[in-house]
Amino acid sequence: MINIYDYLDYREYLRDYYVEAKKSKPFFSYRFIGNHVGMDSSYVIKVLQRGLHISSKKIDAFIKLLDLDRPGGEYFEALVHFGRAKSVSQQKIYFERLFSLSSVKAHRLEQHQYEFFQKWYYSAVWAIINCLPFDGDYHALAENCMPAITVWEAKRSVRLLEKLELIKKNDDGKYHTTGQNLTTGYKWLSQVVENNQREMIRLAGESLSSFDKKERDISSVTLGIDEKVLPEIQEHIRQFRMSLIKIVNGYAGTGRVYQLNIQLFPLSSNLEKNP
Fold first, then answer.
1. CA 20, CA 36: separation in Å to the nearest integer?
2. Are the C-beta atoms of residues 168 and 178 closer than 8 Å to each other?
3. Which H, E and C letters describe the chain, residue by residue?
4. 49 has which bridge partners?
5. Tens digits of pLDDT across the chain (275 residues)
6. Does residue 58 contact residue 44 with C-beta atoms inside 8 Å?
7. pTM, entire model
8. β-sheet bridge partners, residue 175
9. First vs last Cα of the chain: how many Å apart?
């Protein structure tokens, strides 16, 4: 049986709930849902497909339909508001609300993981320490980031990386990376990673004026694509990423930290559906 506390996307929860309920209740249909929450069945479909959101006025009706207890209902309500949040600050407020409401014995690691993906420089500091063990000189650590961060941000980064057990102080008195990877496998962390990706895309734009051409490689191509071939393109991108990792891991030394962004996104509506 699905557990609402395993979700950070209420529409994903609704979709899984629908599939589960349909197995034991053949009458459980989009129309059935629509009749009970006062919503057209076509709108229900679009919600479950993550194309639309339910309104705040419909939350109570859905809680009743889902037969959620009071804590579960409060969590569902926070899920809806989190999904509808339009700014990072709003997302953070509702994420913390979700975390506090979760009946699951959530690991503190998960909350620290959430924080990790809020700032671009956390991963940069980790990569720098991976290249050059940190001896406690926060001024140098801050200046090694590009763009440079503050000493306070450098200290904050080291504290967080320690909590995540991504770095550890060894007998030589220096911080080294532990070799552990930060997982994004949690259903409710995958969406949070988007904030980090937005930051990295922003930095990529700034790099056009911050670095000489010989220090960067930024190119773009506009394609007309049949959506049937999209999965194949995505697989090629995945294999390309993995091949680069193998190349980099084949060298013992590291002289500089780089960020690689690969972006594929639509520039038009679905032209096949247009008259």
1. 18
2. yes
3. CCCHHHCCCHHHHHHHHHHHHHHHCCCCCHHHHHHHHCCCHHHHHHHHCCCCCCCHHHHHHHHHHCCCCHHHHHHHHHHHHHHHCCCHHHHHHHHHHHHHHCCCCCCHHHHHHHHHCCCHHHHHHHHHHHHCCECCCHHHHHHHCCCCCCHHHHHHHHHHHHHCCCEEECCCCCEEECCCCCCCCCHHHHCCHHHHHHHHHHHHHHHHHHCCHHHCCCCCCCCCCCHHHHHHHHHHHHHHHHHHHHHHHCCCCCCCCCCCCCCCCCCCCCHHHCC
4. none
5. 788 887 878 998 999 999 999 888 889 999 999 999 999 999 999 999 888 999 999 999 999 999 999 989 999 999 999 889 887 677 777 877 777 776 443 444 455 666 777 788 888 898 889 888 899 999 999 999 988 899 999 999 999 999 888 899 999 999 998 876 555 444 545 555 666 677 778 778 888 888 888 888 888 888 788 888 888 988 888 888 888 877 877 776 667 788 888 888 886 666 666 55
6. no
7. 0.52
8. 134, 169
9. 44
For residue 133, give the amino acid letter: P
